[in-house]
Structure formats: C-alpha cells, structure tokens
Amino acid sequence: MKSFEYCCPTEIIFGKDAELKAGKKIKACGASKVLVVYGGGSVKRNGLLDRIGTNLTTAGLQYITLGGVKPNPVVSFVRDGIKLALREKVDFILAVGGGSVIDTAKALAHGVANSKYDIWDDIWQKKVEIHKTTPLASVLTLAAAGSETSDSAVLTNEETGQKRGLSMVLNRPRMAFMNPELTYSAPKFQVACGIGDILMHTLERYFSKDKDNYMTDFIAEGLLKNVIAFSHDALEKENDYLSRSEIMYCGSLSHCDLTGLGRQKDFSVHKLGHELSGKFDVTHGASLTTMWASWARYSYKTDIARFARLANVLWQIDEKDAETAALKGIDKMEEYFHSIGLPTCFSELGIGVQDEKNISYLADMCTDGGSKTVGNFKPIAKQDAINMYKMANH
C-alpha cells in the first residue's frame, strides 16, 4: 500500500425507518432550528417531508423548508437559500433527496457559516479558504452520487455555463440517514443513472498511475461486481429491498474515498461529462456513461494491463493478448450500460450529433480554454478532449 490519510466522519444510520432517527440525533448535535432542503414534489406527494417534519418537531426542533433544487443544482438557488437561512437564523441543514439536493445543502452550509463571502465567486472558485461550515445531515432518497459521505460537491453557474466541483473535508456531512425503501419511488431511468454514477466514482479511482494498492483494488473490484450483480434486480423487481440496499451502501462506499486509498483520483470522465450537463442540462450519470467508452478507447494504452485485469475481474475475459482483453472489456462495459438503459454516445444521450463549434466549446470549457490538462491517468489537453467528444459524437 502507498501512503494515505483517510477520515470519513459521517455517521451512517442505515436500514428501514432510518429517517425516523433524524430528529433525535440532530437535537443531540445542539441544533435548534433546521433548514430542510429538497428537490421536486415527490417527497411531498409520498409523505416523506411531512414525516420528517413531524419527527423534527417531536424532538423539540423548529424547522423551515426550501424546495425546488434542480437535478444540476445552480448557484442562484443557493444564493437565495443562504439569504433565507440567515434571515431565519437556522443552525442546522438537513438535505432530503439525492446528490443534487445534498450538494446544494453543502453549498448552503458553507454560505451560511461564511456569509461575508460569495458562494461562487469566493468559495467555489477557491479564492478564499474557509475553515467552518454549518452542521449538515442527509436523508437519502436515491443511491447515486455518494454525496452523503463524500468530501465533494458540484454546482452549476447558469450565467457562465460552468459546472464545477469543490472538494474539501468540510463537505462531509455529520450524518447520513439511509433507508433503501425511500428509493422505491425513484423513476427507473434515475435509478439506472445512479448505478452508472456509482460505477464511475469507482472507475475514476481505479484507473490511476499509482501501483501496488492491492487491498484498495480488491475493495474497488468487489464494489463494481456487486453493483453490476444487483443492478438488474434493482431495475426490474418492484420494491426489492435486497438489491436496493446493496446498491445504496455501494453508493456511499464508492465516493467516500475508500475505493481509492493510496492512489490519486483521475475523474477525467466526470470533467468531460460535466460540460455536457452544463451545456445541455442532461442527467449527470447519463453524461458519464456517454463519455466513458470513448475515454477508455482513447486512453487504454496508458496501462493496457490494468484494463485487461478489469476485463477479467468483471466479465471473465481471459485472452493471452492483453490488448485484445482490454478492448473486449471496454466493449463489454458499453454493452452493460446499454443493458440497463444508459447512453454511450451523444445521440443516445438525447442531444444529437454536434457540430465542430459545439465540440470545440465543450473542450474549451473542459480545459479552461486549453490552459490546463484534466486528469492524471492520461492527462487530457484540449485536443484530446476534442478527440474524445468526437468519438462519442454519433
């Protein structure tokens, strides 16, 4: 194993009715007034929001709600939410939803605790270093982003079209309430996109130039195999607790850094996908599977043996020639994405074939106008990004 430092302070409360423990645990943190953040109307229609409100009130907590988080959360919403939270003097934030809601809550938490700074211009652009945040917890309703345990969050600036991530220890929530039953009402496509996101969070750590981290490899490979094994049941069997519980737990493990200890993260595919989401407002997980095979075919020669190993572990591909195995493994992953209804090219993503101008725009946004490279497994310059977008442009 290579050297690493690891701390994941999020307390996980997992299982049926986990969300009903929120009030008591939040009260124990010393909170008095909670801002409950959520997305669309589903948590209201299915009664979850009311149950949580009752739970908070029973625990002796006041609360206010803030709904309307978009699937690709935007800065303007966060700025308005910060003003509301400051005016109402909230001292705890509870996210009820998936990754977009939790990422929004993280930004709100930072903005409330550091109100003299702008959340985008100062904090998200890393012009200032913050050292405090508002306590945060989440009630997870979709297994996907892993934001409930991760040190990262993503926001979109709708004025500039930029979608940017921010990683730091302060992003780790205090608690994550995880009841697999709360994922039952999610649309099938969203569940599939969540599965794609979980796999990608692990793959983006698996492909690294750092060697000899065997325990980390086994954890990552086991997680990938487990998600793939349970994914079809999760999508095809109604209210299947076993498959939903396995995938929910894998989602948290995939992005809490456990699957990447001892090596540098890459996240090139995320960066390529973020620009698709920023311009076309497509679902995050779908943007990742759209780009993965193109990235893999463009990058596999960086470490053919690594791709060949994964092909064997996931798909039992056993070829004497490592390059043949690597390419067959990429093909098989692409077939798998199709089997769960996820796109692997622009047309399948629903944005159609793009012209040269848009391809260049995407590459510009990805590499800050060609001023930097993306990733470390195979550093991507602007022309590399153009080439990969072109490979997916059909």
From TrEMBL:
**Could you tell me the superkingdom of the organism this chain comes from?**
Bacteria
Q: Which UniProt keywords apply?
A: Oxidoreductase
Residue ranges annotated for the Alcohol dehydrogenase iron-type/glycerol dehydrogenase GldA domain, each copy included: 9-180
Q: Molecular function (GO) terms listed?
A: alcohol dehydrogenase (NADP+) activity; butanol dehydrogenase (NAD+) activity; metal ion binding; methylglyoxal reductase (NADPH) (acetol producing) activity
Q: Which GO terms describe its cellular component?
A: cytosol
InterPro entries per UniProt: ADH_Fe/GldA, ADH_Fe_C, BDH-like
Q: Where is the Fe-containing alcohol dehydrogenase-like C-terminal domain?
A: 197-392
UniProt cross-references to Pfam families, sorted A to Z: ADH_Fe_C, Fe-ADH
Q: Which Gene3D superfamilies match?
A: 3.40.50.1970, Dehydroquinate synthase-like - alpha domain
What name appears for this protein in its UniProt entry?
A: Uncharacterized protein
Give the source species: Pectinatus cerevisiiphilus
Q: What is the lineage of its organism?
A: Bacteria, Bacillati, Bacillota, Negativicutes, Selenomonadales
